[in-house]
Amino acid sequence: MSLLEIKNLTVEFQTASGPFRAVDGVSLKVDEGEVLAVVGESGSGKSVSMLAAMGLLPWTAKVTADVLTFNGRDMRSMSDSERRKIIGKDIAMIFQEPIASLNPCFTVGYQIEEVLRIHTDLSRKARRDRAIELFQSVGIPNPEERLGHYPHQMSGGQCQRVMIATALACNPKLLIADEPTTALDVTIQKQILDLLMKLQAEHGMGLIIITHDMGVVAETADRVIVQYKGRQIEEADVLSLFTAPKSVYTKALLSALPENATGGRLPTITEKLTDAEIFAGAMR
């Protein structure tokens, strides 16, 4: 049984010009201990797909799916209270832009302890001890002191580590990392990726990494799903995707890697392919 299973997920938003389908027929499975990368350009529906699965989109969004289960439970039929017991505890998400995701009005210690207060029966002292333990596990120095700091008093890399610690607070079965290295310098990116993979292996979690960076995919994933304009274009194990991509879009995506730049110019996908060519080979 898969940890998370989604079949034919669609998401529509109402706009001034009518309904806009942001996700169109996405399907995926994640098993315990598996790392799945969801890759594609900005606007390809990667983040929206995961937010829809977690029930975190605004009520105005129309979300449908033939199957949407977590650990064997149908998430489509759950009440809001049932879903709240799972989100943050069994399924956790590291959002883009850690500075924007943390509340500037509360200390980082308060924010991580709040998750523990909601989802566990730990005493106040036990929650603080657990927060210190989590900060230590993600490599935040002087954790007792850092608990009293506000987000603006910490660097981007430290805030990302706080987000990871908060996501891991209740030992989730599934962790979703949305562009976990965006806006971080190269050295910090490597540290964060290494930390995520170390923690994933230690806890045996299922891990979904949402990214546009094929280098991140190569370093972390077991399987890869490629999305374009809300549609699922290809799914493969990571070795097959890099050595023998099937879709024209995936081939173009790989050819646009920085190491393939010629004459100082990086190849672009839009110069090579039309939507009709891309969708002609899309998975359905």
UniProtKB/TrEMBL annotation:
InterPro entries: AAA+_ATPase, ABC_Ni/Peptide_Import, ABC_transporter-like_ATP-bd, ABC_transporter-like_CS, P-loop_NTPase
Places the protein is found: Cell inner membrane
Molecular function GO labels: ATP binding; ATP hydrolysis activity
One cellular component term from this protein's GO annotations in UniProt: plasma membrane
Membrane disposition: Peripheral membrane protein
Domain (ABC transporter): residue spans on this chain: 4-254
GO process annotations (BP): transmembrane transport
Pfam families: ABC_tran (PF00005)
Main location: membrane
Family: Belongs to the ABC transporter superfamily.
PANTHER family: DIPEPTIDE TRANSPORT ATP-BINDING PROTEIN DPPD (PTHR43297:SF2), OLIGOPEPTIDE TRANSPORT ATP-BINDING PROTEIN APPD (PTHR43297)
Name used for this protein in its record: ATP-binding cassette domain-containing protein
